[in-house]
Each structure stands twice: as C-alpha cells, then as structure tokens.
Specification:
By secondary structure, this protein is an alpha/beta fold. The chain has two domains: 2-256 and 462-485, Aldehyde Dehydrogenase, Chain A, domain 1 (3-Layer(aba) Sandwich), CATH 3.40.605; 259-444, Aldehyde Dehydrogenase, Chain A, domain 2. The chain is built from 17 helices and 23 strands. The strands form six sheets. The chain has a seven-stranded mixed β-sheet, with helices on both faces. A six-stranded mixed β-sheet has the order 10-9-8-11-12-22, sandwiched between helices. Strands 1-5-4 form a three-stranded mixed β-sheet, with no helix packed on it. Helix 6 runs parallel beside helix 7 and helix 11 packs across helix 12. The longest helix is centred in the first third of the chain and has 17 residues, at 63-79. It starts with a strand and ends with a strand. Bound molecules: 1,4-dihydronicotinamide adenine dinucleotide and the ligand O=C(O)/C=C/C=C(\O)C(=O)O. Keywords: NAD, Oxidoreductase. It holds the Pfam family Aldedh. Its EC number is 1.2.1.8. GO terms for molecular function: betaine-aldehyde dehydrogenase (NAD+) activity.
Amino acid sequence: MNEFKHFINGEYVASASGKTFDNRCPVDNSLIGRVHEAGRDEVDAAVRAARAALKGPWGKLTQAQRTALLHKVANRINERFDEFLEAECRDTGKPYRIASHIDIPRGAANFTAFAETLANHPTEGFRLDTPDGKGALNVGHRSPKGVIAVISPWNLPLLLMTWKVGPALACGNTVVVKPSEETPATTTLLGEVMNECGVPPGVFNVVHGFGPDSAGEFLTTHPLVDAITFTGETRTGEAIMKAAAVGLRNISLECGGKNPGIVFADCDLEKAVEGTMRSAFVNCGQVCLGTERVYVERPIFDAFLARMKEEVAKLKLGRPQDPQANFGPLVSQEHRDKVLSYYRLAVEEGATVEIGGGIPDMGPELNGGAWVEPTIWTGLSDDARVIREEIFGPCCHIRPFDSEEEVIALANDTDYGLAAAIWTENSSRAVRVAEQMEAGIVWVNSWFLRDLRTAFGGAKQSGIGREGGVHGLEFYTELKNICIKL
Ligand SMILES: NC(=O)C1=CN([C@@H]2O[C@H](COP(=O)(O)OP(=O)(O)OC[C@H]3O[C@@H](n4cnc5c(N)ncnc54)[C@H](O)[C@@H]3O)[C@@H](O)[C@H]2O)C=CC1
Ligand SMILES: O=C(O)/C=C/C=C(\O)C(=O)O
C-alpha cells in the first residue's frame, strides 16, 4: 500500500492530524494508497520552508548554477522514467503508449527548456539623453518573485506541474505545490529527485489535500505566498483570484476551454480526421486544449463524419500496460458521473448519437473502473448546454457550416477562448481565420504541436496571463529598473 506524504523542507512528513484520504486507480477502482491531507500547520510549514530557502544556498546560486541543477533534475526524471510512467498511469489510468511519449518526456523537458530560455534572455537597456549631455543608462534587473504557490490538476499531472515548477525555479523562486487530490504520485516522487540532485531543502515543497477548506485554500490564502499559478476549472480560477486579491498577489490562470475545430472543404481530409481524432479523444478527452465542437464545411460533412466514426470504432480501450491500448478510463468515478450526465443531457437536448454515448463493457475485472465510450453527436442547436459547457470527456459534436463568416461567428460564440484548430490547405484563409479566432492558441493543420518557447494561455474565461518561453518572466520575476546617471 502506498502512502503519499507531504514533502516539506526536503523531507517526507505525515499530517500531524493523522488525516488521510484514499487514492484509487480509475482502471478498476482498486485502492492505490493513502494520501496525507495537509492542515493549516503543514501548509504553513511548507510556505515558511520555501521562504527561508530564498535566503539560503538556493538564493546565492548563479543563473548558470541553477541552470545546471535543473538539467540534472531533467536527467534524473529520464533515468527514473519507468517509475514516473508507472506512477502516472496508475493514478490516471492513461495508456503507457500515450504517457511515455507525452507526459513523462515533457515533465523532464519543462526543466531544460525553461532553464535554457530564461538563462539566455537579454536584459532590457535604454540610454537616456539628459540636459547636461552626459546621459543616463537604464538597466532592467529581474529578481525572483519569491514563494510561488502551484495548484495543479489531474489530467496531465507531471506535465502541468513541471510546466510551472520549471520556470519558477529557473527564475530563482521557491515553490509549494498542491497537486490534484486525484493524482498525488508523480509530484511526490519528484521530491526524491530534487534531493538526489542536490536541490536545497525548502526549494521544492509539496502539500496534499483538496481545494476549499483544505490544502488548496490554505495555500492560496497564506500571506507569505507571493504569487499563485493555477491550471484547472474556470470556477476554481475565480476562487483563487479572490484569494489572491488579499495582499495584491499576482496570479497566472490557465482555465477551461470549449475549443472549436474548423474543417474547410479544401482541407486534406485524412490529416483533418487524424488531428481531430487526437484533439477530441487523446487522454480520454481530458485536455483543456481539446476540441469539443467541430464545424465541417457542408460539401465534406458526410465524408468527414463517416471517417471519424470509422476511427472512433478503432480506438483500443485497455489497461495502461497494454501496448495496443490508446484509450484509457476517465480519471475518477466522480468525473465519470459528470461526463455521463452530459451524455444523457445531449440526448435530452435532441442530439443524434452517431457513435458511443454509454459505458463500455470492459469485463468483470475492469467494469468497476471509470470507463466511458468515446462519443460523437450531431444535430444539437447552438445554444444547447452540451455545446456551451466544458465537458472534459472523450466526446465532440460535429455540425455543418456554409461560409467562412458563419463559422468564425460560431467558433467565437463561447465564454471560453483557449484554443482553436483550423484545417485547410489555403494558407491565406488559414491566416485570415486564425487572426479572427478569439483564442490564445490557434493551430493550423495540426493540434497540440507544442513549442515551449511560445506564449501559452487563454482569452475570455479561459484564463489570465501567458506562460511559456520568456512570457513567464513577467509572472515569475519582479522587474526593477535601475537608472544610472553618467
Ligand atoms: N486543465 C483544465 O482545464 C482542467 C479542467 N478541469 C475541469 O474541472 C472540473 C473539475 O475538476 P477538478 O479536479 O475538481 O478541477 P479543479 O479546478 O477544481 O481542481 C484543480 C486544482 O485546484 C484545486 N482547488 C480546487 N478548489 C480550490 C480552491 N478553492 N482553492 C485552491 N485550490 C483549489 C484542486 O484541489 C486541484 O489541485 C473537471 O470536471 C473538468 O471539467 C479539471 C482539471 C483540469
Ligand atoms: O502545456 C501543454 O503542452 C499542455 C497544456 C494542457 C493543459 O493546460 C490542460 O490540459 O490543462
């Protein structure tokens, strides 16, 4: 039986209260282990350790020394690849086939990419003319922001946690991470890696627990936290924003999406089908960038729908270890209840279920798991809740359109603004439409093609701020101008 403890000041510690909660595997609902639930005291100890570490050996490292240390962390994740893979897939149920080329490699790359990008970023400088003719030099100086609270979700646990911890540490901050209660394993394991690599105690801390009235709230309301970075649901983002208002702490929020895919008749049909399949069904549809609304130009609507149904029928559901499996369960029974409620709602709202729509029979060993069928609907009206609300499951609605103007309006008719995918071989149209998308990220003839140097974040209710590349500098550092009179 695993026991997931907090990682505070370089040591694994249990909750003083003795409070724990169960961690279950979504593949078959078996018990993985017990997770310690942090109270205010553990959160306070973690934040104080992080604050003290800013003034310790960590705060004295040069950028080059920090960069070298973060490379070591990335290498060690790669050396312990199989342990991370097994832990991640046990927590989430996702296939090894997926996690071994997305989650774990990106978990390591998030340290190297940000260490390099930030180490090589130039300092701002301006020469100012002055009346005496001698002038002045203005030099931008960046210092770490301080203690960063990282609140991370369950869908890509290692990837999304390190996506924040990597740049935070590269900029010289210290962190307290509150991973999702559903997926404590890889964040806990990262504590061992930090110790093995010689990252000083207190630089990386982990507290476990839930959101409201638990570790998440205790951490985000802690007065010694300087800034909060979050990925998860929009409503949680609002709660965190309120918490951050006290003491005027900075926030970076990456929240939900209801992302459109736009398929023009002049696309390469096979490319569009392959990309839309991935964007709707990879990770069992639990990716904030995923496509839940697909708009297809009428002349190819029937052909596109038929090909999508053929491909959905080929998805191979199975245990994470099954080398053929490319589709796992949802993360939890609770999330399955939510997704299935939308499957029922779609029918109530008048959808035609083109494929799926229910619970697959996985056999006696797996039927207790959080499995749902990959699902495609057609026929819903544009104001249906299924079209407007983020479901975060393996499902999409496909609807025909007749003109570019119409589809731009449809795609933007949402409270969210995270991502969009456009499929066309006409590059002028691609740019024209991409520029009109109310979204932070637009892919043309691709999806989830990630370059870690680029800006990442959402418009409207999909978030506040941009991370990625040098954009994270604005959040993870304090920029001071030093004016030197010559
Ligand atoms: N990347 C995304 O866009 C994600 C979206 N979701 C969506 O959100 C729905 C709910 O899933 P949850 O895991 O409950 O997401 P959530 O947004 O509630 O949880 C994400 C993280 O925030 C923490 N948290 C929750 N409330 C908090 C609070 N008041 N203060 C501080 N921390 C808090 C959680 O413990 C977790 O670590 C899902 O059904 C899905 O639709 C979930 C995970 C990721
Ligand atoms: O940074 C990435 O490549 C992936 C980001 C995905 C999310 O933010 C999400 O699914 O929540």
